[in-house]
Give the backbone structure.
Amino acid sequence: MAESASPSDAELILAVLQRDDRRAFGVLVERHQSRVRTVLRRLTRGDMALADDLAQETFVLAWRNLKSFRFEARFSTWIYRIAFNAWQSEARKRREVSLELDDDVLADDGNSTFEMPDVAARIDLERAMEALSDGERAAIGACYYADLSHEEAAAALGMPLGTVKTHVLRAKAKLRARLAPKKEKAE
Amino acid sequence: MTTNDWIEKILREDAARPLADGGFTRRVMDTLPARQAQRISWLRPALMMGSAALGGALAAAIAGTSLPQGFIDIVQMRGLTHAALTGMAMVAAMVVSALVLASDV
């Protein structure tokens, strides 16, 4: 699709709302599909087929409800909120999803000084993410993959701000505990 | 680099890694439902209210009463004349239609 000057998300949304411009919506999908699908892949513990189904559902819901989009928010924030809701609904269908805090706290001193090579890290990261609780994965997904602030993540996930922060801290501690030995082995 | 810096780095790198579209956008576009008829959103209320009004007018015509006379009777509080009853029935039908429309928003 030729784009002499790339229109903003807001301009594309207006084109959809005012002229029923499906092509403009297609540009929005193209622009955001990567991040939305990546977030959902992490949330679904790497189940790519389910993640893509949920991503598709997310964009269809966005299309249906675009008139309720408020332009003071970023489109990405709005679409991630829909994606999180889709994931939570699906997770509840399969089992009782819990976004509550767990008791298994891992200590995180936050002072270790090492770097991990990128090569094997990605696969290890995917496996380490699978070990996180639903709430921890959701918080990491919102804050790092969807790039939301803690406040935006709390609103998107429907959980208190303090819970989001705790989930993020615990998730990072768990990731460190799982990934650090692999890093040391690689050195 | 601290542990948190390192973990945040790989998380952000993982998140930023572009995912090839692989026909995803096409699949989404193919499944988009037809858009709600926003531009003719007035059509349904107009049809309902119009049909209620038309029904009332037809009923009045069949009954051989005059709707304008019915409304005049109502305004002048002339009691339950045929024309007034027809006028009230028509107003009632339109009120019910309006309530149905309002509850459907």
Summary: Residues 62 and 68 of chain A are 9 Å apart (CA to CA). DSSP finds eight helices and no strands in chain A.
